[in-house]
Amino acid sequence: AQSVTQLGSHVSVSEGALVLLRCNYSSSVPPYLFWYVQYPNQGLQLLLKYTTGATLVKGINGFEAEFKKSETSFHLTKPSAHMSDAAEYFCAVSDQSTDKLIFGTGTRLQVFP
Amino acid sequence: DVKVTQSSRYLVKRTGEKVFLECVQDMDHENMFWYRQDPGLGLRLIYFSYDVKMKEKGDIPEGYSVSREKKERFSLILESASTNQTSMYLCASSFLQSSVTNYNSPLHFGNGTRLTVT
């Protein structure tokens, strides 16, 4: 079965600094990978997804993620953090053996002025 | 915009009560899902449904049941609520394509119901 590991349950950055949220997956077959964001008191919304093709994927709000098969990683980055980026971020992988979406445990991003 | 509406934002129930959590989506999505979200555990799938009157168990179905009598509505039922079911419950929907993964059709989530069982 596939699994997702998000390193760091909390990440803090200053406004304007680089944001890096880490996600590693385990999969014996090419996975489909997703990042979702949850703002306070809201449900999750899709940031970006990788299915096939270009390994660098651009999403909403200036975020992007790169699929690295050799490292089994799909880290999320943003060059310059904004206060409005404060939220919880979830990495997810499709489990093609059981046909389900497997979520990581989430990383809470704090942005300081 | 897709709208997934969960009927209650906060609920407080007593141990042993039967609890209904309601979810309605307005985009004619075939797939609907119930997750629970707990700190440090992420989202865990309880039940999902591909179609009316159809249901499949997720990873943690024990203590829960579901009902899908109409395409737009998916209800989660706690037959006898217990304190370990205190959690945030999230409903989601998506189009059916080749599979529930629906990599071309993202999940659309409601804002969640925070349930406290005392």
Question: What Rg of chain A do the Cα atoms give?
Answer: 13 Å
- Element pattern of chain A in H and E: EEEEEEEEEEE
Which structural class should the secondary elements of chain B be placed in?
A: mainly beta
Cα shape of chain A: globular
What composes the largest sheet of chain B? 7 strands, mixed
% residues in beta strands of chain A: over 45%
How far from one another are the termini of chain A?
Answer: 41 Å
Shape estimate of chain B? globular
For the terminal residues of chain B, how far apart are their CA atoms? Answer: 37 Å
Tally of DSSP β-strands of chain B: 11
How big a fraction of the residues of chain B is strand? Answer: over 45%
Structural class of chain A, by secondary structure, is mainly beta
Order of helices and strands of chain B: EEEEEEEEEEE
Number of helices of chain A: 0
Number of helices of chain B: 0
Q: What is the residue-mean pLDDT of chain A, rounded to a whole number?
A: 90
Q: Oligomer, anyone?
A: heterodimer
- The stretches of 5 or more residues of chain B where confidence is low (pLDDT under 50) are none
Hey, which two chains have the biggest interface? A-B, 23 and 24 residues
Question: What is the percent of helical residues of chain A?
Answer: under 10%
What this model shows, in words?
The complex is a heterodimer of chains A (113) and B (118). Chain A has 113 residues and is mainly β. Chain A contains no helices and 11 strands. In chain A, strands 2, 4, 5, 9, 10 and 11 form a 6-stranded mixed sheet that branches. In chain A, strands 1-3-8-7-6 form a 5-stranded antiparallel sheet, with no helix packed on it. The mean pLDDT of chain A is 90. With 118 residues, chain B is mostly beta strands. Chain B is built from no helices and 11 strands. In chain B, the strands form 2 sheets. In chain B, strands 2, 4, 5, 6, 9, 10 and 11 form a 7-stranded mixed sheet that branches. The N and C termini of chain B lie far apart (37 Å). Classes of the chains: A mainly beta (113), B mainly beta (118). The A-B interface holds A 9, 32, 34, 36, 41-46, 49, 51, 90, 94-96, 99-101, 103-106 and B 4, 35, 40-45, 58-59, 90, 92, 99-101, 103-104, 106-112.
